[in-house]
Design goal:
By secondary structure, the protein is of the alpha+beta class. The chain binds adenosine-5'-diphosphate (ADP).
């Protein structure tokens, strides 16, 4: 047997064959019809369209054959390809090329064979259209013309399809190209960079320009290492090398370089771009700027740290007085105490309680101020008496320490101004208190003077001063500098005072020279008033020395037994007749059955709470009781401003914040309870 020789330009022939993408495709009616027609025209049992691959011939359509492919080495068609023209074998048994061919000696037992090549327009024979018989035959050239014509028709058909395919692919490619360009254009907030395998930039998105500060033309054609720090471990070459062997995208978080030399934190991933054989041909890197995310993470970390510092400081400041309170109250329970010891221990307990009260009040105050929900309430103020009033509070302490406390109002200021009395007094008091507390020699001067459109209060002392490094920190909550344990305080005064200053439309500044003293300047908007009108409009003093009338009938609704007992004891000491109930529903029932001069209701009670109870009482009163409405005070442990509005809307007359001092309770009875017995 003689195998057909392989043509010299076999690789070109194979490329032409592969370009038709016909090998191993499904059966098609057109080819089957052609093969059927051949069998009919030539009256042969076997006909086929085959394509000759590198090592095999593959039948696109065949009649009378079992296999769908046979080795090229034994194929008759291989000879048609080698010759490039019509091949006729009239009796294979007598042909030296085929007499011992297994297709002759075994099935299908070929004797007669005629094959016409399928030749591309470029002259490459890619397949064969053939007829075969199991009997020898003679056939003339003319008789084979239909076979050749059909072969030409088939290749023309394939060629047409091929061209249509190419056009469709070209259109698809153009479409894809335009899509890609649109993606690169539209990617404004993310950087897309396509590089070749040398790491040279081929294409960039609009976002790349914004992110790295380069124009597109400054990037294309340059190495992508341009945007990487030189000391970077993940150099682009290393990434490309990795992608050659592993197609999973490489994802990194690192600092990248802008055109102006600055850096920014980024997340970028490099994706492989491969050809149809999965070979790496380019890379696409996608980069996001994560500066904002990093900033948020940092803020969160700082906030968590601040929270934990705050909790540490709070728990320390709460535990110290609590410790005294618990220790001395335990001692008080002992029986063998002298009267003097008992008085002293009770005093320590009271001091501990007051300290706790002060701290909780300050914390609530600070949180309310920081929430931004508080508003300034202005009224006419007599400036000299406002300042003198605050200085007078600290004169005894200053005198005891042997330091001066002077107050001065600039002649250029009006006597009457409009301002928030409570807040100004609070701020001045905090600042004068500190100045006197931290000054051991010399003195403190409090001045009010105009400063542009503002009124400025300067509290100047000759104290130790505040080191430059800690000047900002003193305004932070719980920062006590070096005075922790040496001077009383919680480190909340300045934080509150600055918030207060800002709430009333001003600010608080510090100037200090270490070893020489400090000046805190509190500013507030200056609104001068006409002297006479303002003095008439000033509110009357609210302080009173009046005592509550004995025999007041008071209903206390409080679910916490200790608080209930405390209220009852204090009120009974004021000679009141007290009824205590432990929930809202009992309070409502008791009020319906007995007359009272005052109701003291806890805001938070199980079931009917203080607000709903107040509403219920006011509704029933409105429905027809002739008696005047009973005064109601609500007890609350909350920050008052949060519930005040709701309380007054429900119909309460006053609020009392827990823990209430005896004097607060006494003043409340005087204000609310009727003076005359019923
Ligand atoms: P407190 O006085 O309760 O510690 P503040 O918030 O009023 O809290 O003050 C914070 C810190 O600022 C003080 O602990 C102290 O270190 C410093 N400070 C405040 N006022 C003065 C002052 N006049 N002179 C020196 N240090 C001061």
């Amino acid at each position: 047997m003689k195998s057909a020789p392989i043509p010299d330009d076999e690789h070109i022939r194979l490329a032409a064959l592969y370009s038709y993408r016909i090998l191993d495709t499904e059966a098609e009616a057109a080819f089957d019809r052609c093969v059927r027609t051949l069998c009919r025209i030539y009256d042969v049992p076997i006909a086929a369209v085959s394509f000759v691959d590198r090592d095999r011939q593959w039948f696109k359509s065949a009649r009378g054959l079992e296999d769908c492919e046979t080795p090229r080495s034994i194929s008759f068609c291989g000879h048609v390809i080698a010759e490039g023209g019509l091949l006729v074998v009239e009796d294979a048994r007598t042909d030296p090329r085929f007499h011992d061919n297994p297709l002759v000696t075994g099935p299908p037992g070929i004797r007669f064979y005629a094959g016409a090549p399928l030749v591309t327009p470029a002259g490459q024979p890619v397949g064969v259209l053939c007829i075969q018989d199991r009997e020898p035959r003679t056939i003339s050239k003319e008789e084979l013309i239909p076979l050749e014509d059909l072969a030409d028709l088939l290749i023309a058909q394939l060629e047409l399809r091929h061209r249509e395919n190419e056009q469709r692919l070209r259109r698809q490619l153009e479409h894809r190209q335009r899509e890609l360009e649109a993606i690169f254009q539209a990617a404004t907030s993310v950087s897309l960079i396509k590089t070749d395998l040398e790491g040279i930039i081929e294409e960039t998105s609009t976002g790349t320009e914004a992110l790295f500060g380069y124009a597109r033309h400054e990037l294309v054609g340059r190495p992508v290492s341009l945007v990487h720090l030189p000391e970077d471990r993940f150099h682009p070459e290393a990434i490309i090398e990795h992608l050659r062997h592993d197609s999973t995208p490489v994802r990194r978080e690192m600092e990248l370089l802008r055109s102006d030399g600055t850096t920014f934190p980024a997340v970028f991933s490099v994706h492989p771009i491969t050809d149809s054989n999965n070979n790496l041909i380019a890379t696409l890197s996608v980069t996001f700027d994560i500066s904002d995310q990093k900033w948020v993470e940092q803020q969160l970390e700082q906030a968590l740290r601040a929270k934990s510092d705050f909790l540490n400081a709070i728990s320390h400041d709460l535990r110290t007085p609590l410790n005294a309170l618990m220790g001395f109250s335990q001692l008080l329970a002992e029986t063998d105490l002298t009267a003097e010891e008992r008085r002293r221990y009770a005093e320590y307990c009271q001091r501990g309680g007051e300290r706790l009260h002060g701290l909780i009040d300050s914390l609530l105050e600070l949180s309310q101020l920081q929430s931004g929900r508080l508003q300034a309430h202005t009224e006419p103020l007599d400036l000299p008496s406002l300042i003198e009033g605050q200085c007078a509070l600290y004169r005894p302490t200053a005198r005891a320490k042997g330091i001066d406390l002077i107050c001065r109002v600039d002649a250029g200021l009006p006597r009457w101004v409009r301002g928030d009395r409570t807040r100004l007094e609070q701020a001045l008091s905090n600042l004068i208190d500190n100045a006197v507390k931290y000054t051991t020699a010399g003195g403190v001067t409090v001045t009010a003077r105009p400063e542009g459109e503002q009124l400025a209060f300067a509290i100047e002392d000759t104290g130790p001063g505040i080191p430059a490094a800690t000047r900002d920190q003193v305004f932070a909550a719980f920062d006590r500098g070096d005075y922790e344990g040496e001077q009383p305080g919680h480190g909340l005064g300045l934080a509150i005072t600055r918030e207060v200053a800002q709430m009333i439309g001003g600010d608080l500044h510090l100037h200090s020279v270490e070893g020489r003293g400090s000046t805190f300047t509190l500013t507030t908007p200056l609104e001068a008033l006409d002297d006479r009108r303002a003095s008439r409009a000033q509110r009357p003093p609210t302080e009173t020395t009046e005592r509550p009338r004995p025999g007041l009938r008071i209903l206390v609704a409080e679910d916490e037994p200790t608080n209930a007992m405390l209220a009852q004891t204090l009120l009974e000491r004021m000679e009141a007749r007290v009824t205590v109930v432990e929930d809202g529903a009992s309070a409502l029932r008791t009020w319906r059955q007995h007359p009272f001069d005052l109701l003291l209701l806890d805001l938070q009670m199980p079931g009917l709470d203080g607000l709903r109870l107040t509403r219920a009482i006011r509704d029933e009163e409105a429905e027809g009781r002739d008696a005047p409405p009973v005064p109601i005070a609500l007890f609350t442990a909350h920050a008052r401003s949060e519930v005040e509005q709701q309380g007054f809307e429900a119909g309460c007359d006053e609020f009392l914040t827990k823990p209430a001092r005896r004097s607060d309770l006494e003043a409340l009875l005087v204000r609310l309870a009727p003076r005359d017995p019923p």
